[in-house]
Amino acid sequence: MERQVTPMNRFSPPLIALAAVFALAGTGHADAAAAAEKQKALANPYANDAGPTKLADDVLATYPKEHQDAYRNVLLVKCQKCHTASRPLNSQFFEVPGAKDLKAANLAKFKSTQKDMFSDKNIWQVETDIWQRYVKRMMAKPGCDISESEGKAVYKFLAYDSEKRKSGKNLAAWKAHRSKLLAKFKTDFPDRYKELYGN
Known about the structure:
Layout: H1 13-43, H2 57-60, H3 65-75, H4 86-89, E1 93-95, H5 103-113, E2 125-127, H6 130-139, H7 148-166, H8 171-188, H9 190-197
Parallel strand pairs: 1-2
C-alpha cells in the first residue's frame, strides 16, 4: 500500500532532527553575539552603569500595567543580555512627551517652561525622539532577539519612565542623582569621562 504524504509525515525524522540542530545552532550564535555585546558594554562604561539596576517597587507600582510588563519582560530580560538595565534607567535621555505631530511644539514649550532641563546635557538630554532612536539602534545589534512589538513596548516604557522620574516634581531629585553618578564616574574613569562628557 502506497504511503500517503500528509503535512505530519512529509519530513523524515532525520530531517526534523537536522532542522532542530540548525535551530539550536542559530540560538547559540545569537547568545554568543549577545555575550560579545555585553563584553563591549562592560569595556566601555558610562556613568549610568553605576546607578540602580532596578526601579523601586513603589515607583513601578504607580506605572500602567503595559509599562510594568515591558519593564519586567523586555528590559530586565532581553535588554540585559547585552548590557545591564542600569544603562537606560540612569541615562540622561529624555524624550519630549506627546503625540508625534506635537513633539516639536512641545519641545519649544519645554524650552520656555523647563529651562533647568536645558542647562546641562549630561543631566538631561532632551529631544523629540531620542528613546525611539536608541531602542531601534539596540535592536539592530547582533544577538538582539527583541521583536518589533517588544521594541515598541520598551521604547514607550523608557519614554514614560523618563518623564516620571526626571521632570516635574522629581526634577531636583533626578538632578542630584545624575550629578552624583557623573562625579563618581569622573573620579573612577577620568579619561572615559572626558571622552563622553567633556571637562
